[in-house]
Amino acid sequence: MYKNLLPLFLLTGISLYSCSQAKEKMDFESYNPPSTLRVPEHHITKAKYPFIDVHNHQFGMPTMELSTLVTEMDKMNMKVMVNLSGQSGDAIRQSSKNIRDHYPNRFIVFANIDFRKVGEDGWGEAAAKQLEADVRNGANGLKIYKSLGFSVTDIHGKRITVDDPRLDPIWEKAGELKIPVLIHTADPKPFWDPMDANNERWLELETHPGRKRSDTNPAPWDTLIEEQHRMFKKHPRTTFIAAHFGWYPNDLAKLGELLDAMPNVMVEFGAVIAELGRQPRMAKSFFTKYQDRILFGKDSWVPSEYETYFRVLESEDEYFPYHKKYHAFWAMYGMGLPDDILRKIYYKNALRIIPNIDKSLFPQ
Predict the structure, then answer these.
(1) How far is residue 262's CA from residue 197's CA, in Å, rounded to a whole number?
(2) Is the pLDDT of residue 19 over 60?
């Protein structure tokens, strides 16, 4: 066949070789064809009810100009943002003053703990006193970053476990002050698994190699999660919020068992809405059973991405994409939650456990 076509190729100046190379190479990231599926679509840019985002980070809040932030919040019906990056001491005081002077009912600040001197005599008691001072100065909760369990070490250079007894005075003080503790421990389990064709997070790890973990970097996933759960159970009078659905958004049956065993624990779904959107029936069942234990959280401040959250929660749309392919290459579906559950997720549950939120902003 090619022999018969050779005169034509010679005449047009096209070689067999160049023709075979004409096909453009395409990698996985580039292959993202639009779906030909035609089903009803609802692009929800504004939440049905006013909501509280319990998982946000605004590191510059002590001095930042807040009006632009509030304008973006208003567009999506976010009435209150919880800034988990409040730090401590002067930063808390300055953030509180900035909020009080400009938008006194739109922001809530959580304090953070400085772990650098764990191991010194009296450190736990001093940290608890600092937390108490931060609450007096405007903090309404405590945020613990994943560095606890990962990279935080004591004065001897030893990894501090999440359930280290030297930290007990902090958790007890939070319970005494009736403020919640939102804690992020570990990361998705596949970050610890081999980077091969069986790893569902391969693309994320390939594009973000710093997220890869192992049993020695810093410890096995199960070890970190078990440390967290032991700490939860040891302090039943303290309300804990397990960030990112406690890294069980892909195993809601297991998460349900954990919530049953630990009645002082709430969950929020920051950065894991894609896990819920690919299992709408299971997720809706979970949200129905545990409707009093779930909070709205987003994690990163990218206003355009909130639409995905509203769409999963409110609509019954089918087969729509997540906003970051490397994070979730699968399609999602809406749960179509009823209004009574939506109100709890959007604001009622947060009002119950986070002090000093202006309740007049929300329908009763």
Answers:
(1) 36
(2) no
Please report the DSSP string for 72-113 in residue order.
Answer: HHHHHTEEEEEES---STHHHHHHHHHHHHH-TTTEEEEE--
DSSP per residue, 184-215: --S--GGGGS-SSTT-TTHHHHHH-GGG--BT
Sheet with 265-268, side-by-side order of all strands? 51-56, 78-83, 107-111, 139-144, 181-183, 240-242, 265-268, 294-295
Tell whether the model's pLDDT for residue 21 goes beyond 90: no
| pLDDT tens column, 39-92 | 989 999 999 999 999 999 999 999 999 999 999 999 999 999 999 999 999 999
What is the chain's Cα-based Rg? 24
Please compute, for residue 84, the number of CA atoms within 13 A of its CA located in the half-sphere on the CB side: 23
pLDDT reported for residue 101: 97
- Angle, alpha carbons 242-157-234 (nearest 5°): 35
Dist. CA 258–CA 229, nearest whole Å: 9
314: exposed, middle or buried (Cβ count in 10 Å: 0-12, 13-18, 19+): buried
Distance CA 195, CA 191 (A): 8
CATH code at 40-361? 3.20.20.140
Measured over all CA atoms, what is the biggest interatomic distance in the chain, rounded to whole angstroms? 90
User: What does DSSP say about strands 320-321 and 331-332: parallel, antiparallel, or unpaired?
Assistant: antiparallel
User: Does residue 310 register a pLDDT over 60?
Assistant: yes
Q: Burial of 144 by CB count in 10 Å (0-12 exposed, 13-18 middle, 19+ buried)?
A: buried
Q: Strand pairing partners for 80?
A: 52
Whole-prediction pTM: 0.91
Beta strands in the chain (DSSP E): 51-56, 78-83, 107-111, 139-144, 181-183, 240-242, 265-268, 294-295, 320-321, 331-332
